[in-house]
């Protein structure tokens, strides 16, 4: 058996997990090559901790990709410019690479420019720099209207905007300015985390209302005026003093250019194997679209990217060893929803449930919040 090359495109959560799992499963004659533009890895969930000041510097949660070489994982720091899925080649800013297998883990690209005024007016929760700016603004905030706006669906981490609202509420309360403040969430969704089902969504609305946080459903933001501090939606307008934004998402350009995406705008994959329609080419995580029996798509979340990476790694290792596939992705997932005061609720269930996902929500506790922090330590174990 000659050595194979497995090219992993993207060194975010899915790519890093796939690389670590493949290295454990494949003997050293097989090359694991990861292509990622950034020199550091970090988890996006840390943006919430940067926003509250629980974490002061973005560097604290970061890990250096150069250290992957200690685990015999080759890292190429480069921009992926073009992908030829049939030939399994990738053109990058530092040359063309060829693999026997491709694992696409390029995540979702944010494009705030799709909403006029968004980039100028909204502090972007989905970038660490934006999360730090939110913290600075909250530290100076003396009262007024805080609006959390979800620009478009789908977006990564369905709970994140709601967590941001809960955390802002808790922070302003601790700072003694809550009474002089309003907090509101505007979203195109009909309920928070709609794929988890109406019961979970209604419970989250109840939790928002219990804390005096307004919930404005089915609101598509058309335009934001940074000078007037107003956001125009299809159905109504709102004023804001502080605008926290979740920008529009789309599949990264090389995936669109390679025609790997479909009408959903994302890369369609087989729901249990994560295969694309090209032999030996898999896609995982936020870049993919998996239509559920209920008609909606699997949410974009790290918990799914992580498990999908392990499934793909096991099955590539099995194929290389001449064995049948070992593992299937079964659509189970969970999430911790921070509500402030060091508490988090816990939602978990089977998103592949027929006819609809079966997801339950456990009330907030300090234990769930501690478990969420454990996730970061577990992911960082690759660097130990
Ligand atoms: C604020 C926030 C909180 C979150 N909290 C949670 C949570 O609590 N639980 C949970 O399960 N999920 C959470 N998520 C979602 C989670 O971060 C994502 O679902 C997960 O990171 C997706 O993994 P991925 O590998 O598909 O993409 P990513 O982790 O985004 O990785 C994609 C990688 O590809 C690289 N890349 C893209 N294009 C190119 C290119 N052309 N050339 C080179 N490199 C490229 C990017 O630099 C990036 O490193 C959160 C997200 C946010 C924003």
Could you tell me which ligands this complex binds, including any ions or cofactors? flavin-adenine dinucleotide
Biggest sheet statistics: 5 strands, parallel
Content of β-strand: 25-35%
Distance N terminus to C terminus?
31 Å
Number of helices: 9
| CATH homologous superfamily (4th level) name of the largest domain | FAD/NAD(P)-binding domain
CATH architectural grouping of the largest domain: 3-Layer(bba) Sandwich
Shape: globular
CATH topology name of the largest domain, in short, is: FAD/NAD(P)-binding domain
Determine Rg (CA atoms, Å).
21 Å
Helix content: 25-40%
* Number of self-contained structural domains: 2
Strands ordered across the widest β-sheet: 5-2-1-9-21
Quickly name the level 1 CATH class of the largest domain. Answer: Alpha Beta
Structural class: alpha/beta
By oligomeric state, this entry counts as: single chain
Give the beta-strand count: 25
Stretches with pLDDT under 50, minimum 5 residues? none
Whole-number average pLDDT? Answer: 96
């Amino acid at each position: 058996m000659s050595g194979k090359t497995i090219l992993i495109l993207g060194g975010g959560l899915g790519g890093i997990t796939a690389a670590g799992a493949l290295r454990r499963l494949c003997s050293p004659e097989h090359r694991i090559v990861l292509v990622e533009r950034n020199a550091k890895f970090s988890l996006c969930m840390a943006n919430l901790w940067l926003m509250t000041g629980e974490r002061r510097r973005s560097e604290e949660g970061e890990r250096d990709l150069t250290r992957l070489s200690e685990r015999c994982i080759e890292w190429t720091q480069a921009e992926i410019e073009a992908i030829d899925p049939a030939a399994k080649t990738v053109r990058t800013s530092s040359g063309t690479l060829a693999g026997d297998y491709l694992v696409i883990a390029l995540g979702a690209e944010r494009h705030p420019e799709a909403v006029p005024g968004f980039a100028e007016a909204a502090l972007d929760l989905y970038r660490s720099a934006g999360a730090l700016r939110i913290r600075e603004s909250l530290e100076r905030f003396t009262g007024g209207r805080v609006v959390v706006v979800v620009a478009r669906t789908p977006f990564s981490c369905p709970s994140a905007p709601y967590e941001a609202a809960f955390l802002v509420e808790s922070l302003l309360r601790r700072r003694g300015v809550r009474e002089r403040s309003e907090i509101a969430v505007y979203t195109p969704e009909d309920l928070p985390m709609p794929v988890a089902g109406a019961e979970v969504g209604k419970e989250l609305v109840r939790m928002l209302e219990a804390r005096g946080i307004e919930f404005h459903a089915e609101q598509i933001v058309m335009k934001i005026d940074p000078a007037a501090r107003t956001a125009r939606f299809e159905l109504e307008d709102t004023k804001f003093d502080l605008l926290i934004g979740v920008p529009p998402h789309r599949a990264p350009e090389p995936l669109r250019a390679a025609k790997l995406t479909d009408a959903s705008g994302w890369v369609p994959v087989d729901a249990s194997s994560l295969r694309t329609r090209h032999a030996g080419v898999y896609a995982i995580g936020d870049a993919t679209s998996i239509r559920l029996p209920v008609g909606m798509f699997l949410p974009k979340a790290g918990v799914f990217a992580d498990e999908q990476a392990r499934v793909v790694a096991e099955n590539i290792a099995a194929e290389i060893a001449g064995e049948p596939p070992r593992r299937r992705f079964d659509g189970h997932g969970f999430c911790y929803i921070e509500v402030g005061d060091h508490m988090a609720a816990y939602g978990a269930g089977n998103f592949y449930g027929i006819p609809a996902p079966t997801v339950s929500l456990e009330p907030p506790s300090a234990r769930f919040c501690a478990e969420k922090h454990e996730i970061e330590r577990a992911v960082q174990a690759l660097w130990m």
